[in-house]
Structures are given as structure tokens and as C-alpha cells.
Amino acid sequence: EAQVTQNxxxxxxxxxxxxxxxxxxxxxxxxxxxxxxxxxxxxxQIYYSMNVEVTDKGDVPExxxxxxxxxxxxxxxxxxxxxxxxxxxxxxxxxxxxxxxxHFGNGTRLxxx
Amino acid sequence: xxxxxxxxSHVSVSEGALVLLRCNYSSSVPPYLFWxxxxxxxxxxxxxxxxxxxxxxxxxxxxEAEFKKSETSFHLTKPSAHMSDAAEYFCAVSDRLNKFYFGxxxxxxxxx
Lengths: 113, 112
Fold this sequence. Notes:
The complex is a heterodimer of chains A (113) and B (112).
Chain A: E1 4-7, E2 10-13, E3 19-25, E4 31-38, E5 42-51, E6 54-57, E7 65-66, E8 76-78, E9 87-94, E10 103-104, E11 108-112
Parallel strand pairs in A: 2-11
Antiparallel strand pairs in A: 1-3, 3-8, 4-5, 4-9, 5-6, 7-8, 9-10, 9-11
Chain B: E1 4-5, E2 10-14, E3 19-21, E4 24-25, E5 32-38, E6 44-50, E7 56-58, E8 64-68, E9 73-78, E10 87-94, E11 100-102, E12 106-111
Parallel strand pairs in B: 2-12
Antiparallel strand pairs in B: 1-4, 3-9, 5-6, 5-10, 7-8, 8-9, 10-11, 10-12
């Protein structure tokens, strides 16, 4: 089954403790991206990647890191999480960037205390 | 940067009534346009995509959207609402830099 898999689904952590949210897709998509969803704000793009070793900032990249060492994986790293990063995070992929529709994972709900 | 405006954070209709969800975008150059639906505790699913082949785009589950360049709008409609249409709907645009921008979402409530 074609899918985007994110782990974990739920994560509670404390301020400053490094964490990684994994994302993997099995559709051989070129494009992968991360979003955060906050009430009343919709989804905002954090980072995106057009190809292996190519990453670019979205609208809200501060406090986040990403890497694209393999085509199928695109982990999101919070090196020093803060409470304002408490949010619902989505990974998504598409065949070829902005012209193609995004396929979303089921989300990761992160709480930073 | 693009911006996407969805008028009405909550819309309530009766079952069988017309659904109209509004979306306006900011760019003077028509970007790529999408509508997504989100059911509780799930990721977003594609409803439809504007491809520039036709201004009226048909999607899944009876939804359609009309692209109006002069109004920079891409409103979503469905002639007859079903209870199963209750969800949150997001309009999105992408630009030539492959960045995606989403509206703030509209929660659709369908009354029996």
C-alpha cells in the first residue's frame, strides 16, 4: 500500500531534550516536506526537499532541522524543543514538487512541557 | 510569499443542502491550487487539484471547484451535503519554488 509513515504518533517531552520524528514514504516520490498544524492557523510548511541532499526552508523553519540522506526518508529534528513547538506535525510527499498533490502521513502530536 | 484566505472557520449546512466553502489566494500568477479534506485524527486527503486544463475541476465524493482568475478564487462546492462530509477542509496553493501554503481551514458541520 502506498503510504507515508510517521513515527511516533504521540510524543511528550520536556524543554531542551532533543527529539527526532521519522518520516518514510514508499512511493518513490522526489519531494518530501514537513508541516505543523495549529488551531486557526492551518498548516504551515517547515522544510521541504526536492531530492536527496537538497533541503529548503519553508515558512517556519526556526528551531527545526531536517536531513534527506535517502530518497524515502525525511526525519524532522528538534535539537532543543520549546513549549511553543507543541503542535501537530505532518510529513507529506509528492511525485514532483509543487505541481503534484501531497500525500500525507497520519501526523505526530508533540507536547513539550 | 503567497497567502491563502478561507472565509468562515465554521460552516454549518443541513443534509441535502448546497455546500460552499470559499478560498482566495494572493498571487497574480495562477499557482497550483488544491483542496484537501481532514477527518478527525487523520492526515489530509486530496479532494481535487486545479491543472489549468479547465476552470471547473471535479473531485472525489461529488465535490468540485471553480477557478476564477479575475477574482483570485477557487471556491469548493457540493450540490447536496451528506453527513459523511463533516470534516475540516483546507485550500492550498503551491508556487514555482515548490513551496506550499495552506488556508486556515473551514470546519464543515452537516445537520440531519
